[in-house]
Write a structure and sequence with these properties.
This protein is an alpha+beta fold. Helix content is 36%, strand content 20%.
């Protein structure tokens, strides 16, 4: 047995398989059939199993995944992964360029234009030509290690032709084709799981799977658009276009459509051309990205705290389409709120067939002056839920009908109620079937009890078979109950029961949120848990005690107090307690670094949501409040700040931007 020959054969097979991966997933020009490819992979796998001394973590056989992780380790980005400034019109783009010319004396430039894929940012690092680490963008400064999952993406080369001593950090976008997105959602629905709302969310959820074998089945793709660092590469890279050309020579995929433009007019022409082709593409985009080509010029222009000055996202306007309002149905929410939903003549808008849209409330119907039978303009921007923006009143023919406000609940026929200070009408029957259904779905959702597998379809099936009648019944389910449901076999039943058991250790703040108390979101739930420590203490709190908390006014206090006065709720809490659900607060504060400090946020944050920022503060012992006062320690200012900024200036409150806020957390 000649081990050297065996090693060479393994090496040759790996190179051949990666070549076919590149041909298939990047160039889309396969040379062999799927069967022939599978045979090559099988042969390699057999040799690797027989000769484990030649194992390689970057072997194409590892692309199937299988490594499970309980957490994603933090990865520090150096330099930070900044976000891009947005332009939403040709005028705004010209303004972006004019500002650069004025501030930096730049009269002309080359621009690299490529597609703005609707995915999530990812950094991939190669050392000595081998993939060593991959990470998400995170907050721009620190991301999460997703190496094992990225290894499963077949368009990502595991080895590239760079010499010993080299280092290359490629930055790009992980995305899904429209067809693969539909396949994933179809499987989710079949399995009784929640479908993803758009390809970007599906790609994000797939990349952050704790079991990389699940990621491997999702057919994620990757394109490179920039870099973090390059060292030890023989060729000198002076421009963005040269960098993309180098990536292609290394079999690292770049945008399928791109152009080197020599003027602003050429950029706008490319933008218009792509906007026309947008619907024909196999993947979602929401604009183009424009970068100044010369790296020396990029260095001169530098960056702001959140964005490079030398690049912008030139985004498309919202999609609009005209259709007909066929009918209005009334949906019952988990707190009893009745929401009018427009049933539309199906129409394609933004690559998606739209057949309904929320009308929010009856004041919105009045504002739009909308009638059944009206022709309407709907709009869809990015992954925003489609909305009706106006009625085409000039095309009315007299057959249109008024939308009547319902007097009875569409689910239980109980009389509806409306508070004087609210725009909503509500069903106040605590036994309303639709409220029960939505409450159970909410209880099991990711941000609440997080019971994976207990999605809408499964809840509907359990209610239909009368296997559950309230939230507590979730914890009484047995395997034989689940096996009565279609699509539930042994393994799936065991998985769901395991998730239900795991949810018994839910934190108190999650449990409070899961109960669905009106006006009580995740932030208030956390404040209540920290203050009262046990469910019993919270249940017995008076309105006076509740309003001593900064974030809780009379409306929220009244809602909490009345919720726990309901005998059905008290009975439910006792049942959950007897079934072993945690009812005590467990502190998640990592350190008391921000103890005694209070924060207020205003404007839109770039790298995180307000809830995520609030959680970071509270994890370090700080407090988050909604209004500025003399007691406020910091006002964190994002994009388009509100009146809080002026008030903070008058009171002399310390004002910081998002970058300074993140530095403070460190």
């Amino acid at each position: 047995m000649d081990l050297e020959k065996i090693e060479q054969e393994i090496k040759k097979l790996r190179e051949e398989i990666e070549r076919h991966n590149y041909l298939y997933y990047v160039l889309q020009k396969p040379e062999i059939t799927d069967y022939e490819f599978d045979q090559l992979l099988l042969k390699l796998k057999e040799l690797e199993e027989k000769y484990p001394q030649f194992a390689d973590p970057n072997s194409p056989t590892k692309r199937v995944g299988g490594k499970a992780s309980s957490s994603f380790l933090p990865v520090k980005h150096n330099p930070p992964m900044l976000s891009l400034e947005n332009c939403y019109s040709e005028e705004e783009f010209i303004g972006w360029w004019e500002k650069i010319k004025k501030n930096f004396g730049l009269n002309k430039s080359e621009f690299v234009c490529d597609l703005k894929y609707d995915g999530l940012s990812c950094s991939i690092e190669y050392e000595n030509g081998k993939l060593i680490r991959a990470s998400t963008r995170g907050d721009g400064d620190v991301g999460e290690d997703v190496t094992e999952n990225v290894r499963t993406i077949k368009s990502v080369p595991l080895k590239i032709n760079l010499p010993e001593g080299s280092y290359l950090e490629v930055r790009g976008e992980v995305y899904l084709n429209k067809k693969d997105f539909e396949i994933i959602n179809h499987k989710n629905i079949e399995n009784g799981e929640e479908p993803f709302s758009n390809p970007r969310n599906a790609a994000s959820g797939s990349l952050r799977q704790k079991d990389s074998s699940i990621t491997a089945k999702r057919n994620l793709r990757f394109i490179a658009h920039s870099f973090g660092n390059i060292k030890g590469v023989k060729r000198e890279i002076k421009t963005q276009w040269e960098y993309l050309t180098m990536c292609e020579s290394l079999h690292i995929p770049t945008s399928l459509i791109k152009k080197l433009c020599t003027s602003v007019e050429e950029v706008i022409e490319f933008y218009r051309e792509i906007q026309k082709k947008r619907e024909e593409l196999d993947f979602e985009i929401d604009g183009i990205v424009v970068k100044i080509n010369d790296f020396e010029v990029q260095k001169i222009l530098g960056s702001t705290a959140k964005s490079p000055r030398w690049a912008c996202a030139f985004k498309f306007k919202a999609h609009q389409a005209k259709t007909v309002l066929k009918n209005v149905i009334f949906s019952v929410g988990r707190t009893g709120i009745i929401t009018p939903v427009a049933e539309l003549e199906p129409v394609k808008c933004g690559g998606v067939i739209i057949s309904n849209s929320t009308l929010h409330n009856f004041d919105e119907i009045k504002r739009l002056d909308i009638k059944i039978g009206d022709k309407v303009i709907i709009e869809r921007a990015g992954d925003v839920i489609p909305k009706i923006v106006r009625v085409v009143k000039e095309e009315r023919n007299g057959t249109e009908k008024e939308i009547k406000i319902p007097q009875k609940c569409p689910s239980c026929s109980s009389p509806l109620s409306k508070d004087e200070d609210e725009v909503y009408i509500r069903c106040i029957n605590p036994n309303c079937p639709e409220q029960l259904r939505r409450n159970i779905i909410h209880f099991a959702s990711r941000d609440a009890a997080n019971i994976e597998g207990l999605g809408e379809n499964t809840v509907d099936a359990l209610l239909e078979k009368k296997l559950i009648k309230n939230i507590a019944d979730i914890y009484r389910l047995k395997k034989e109950d689940l096996l009565k449901l279609d699509l539930f076999k042994d393994k799936k039943s065991e998985n769901l029961l395991s998730q239900i058991e795991k949810s018994k250790s839910i934190s108190l703040e999650k449990l409070i949120y899961a109960l669905g108390i009106r006006h009580v979101g995740e932030k208030v739930s956390r404040i209540l848990a920290e203050r009262f420590k046990t469910m019993d203490n919270l249940m017995n709190a008076t309105p006076e005690e509740l309003t001593t908390i900064n974030e809780i006014g009379p409306t929220i206090a009244s809602s909490i107090y009345n919720f726990f006065r309901n005998p059905d709720i008290r009975k439910l809490i006792e049942e959950l307690k007897s079934l072993g659900i945690n009812m005590k607060y467990i502190s998640t504060v990592k350190e008391e670094k921000l103890k005694g400090l209070s924060f207020v946020f205003t404007g839109e944050l770039e790298t995180m949501t307000r809830d995520e920022a609030s959680k970071k503060v509270m994890d370090l012992g700080g407090n988050v409040v909604s209004s500025v006062s003399k007691k406020t320690s910091y006002l964190v200012v994002g994009k388009d700040p509100g009146s809080k900024l002026e008030k903070a200036k008058k009171l002399g409150i310390k004002i910081i931007n998002e970058k300074e806020f993140l530095d403070l957390l460190k």
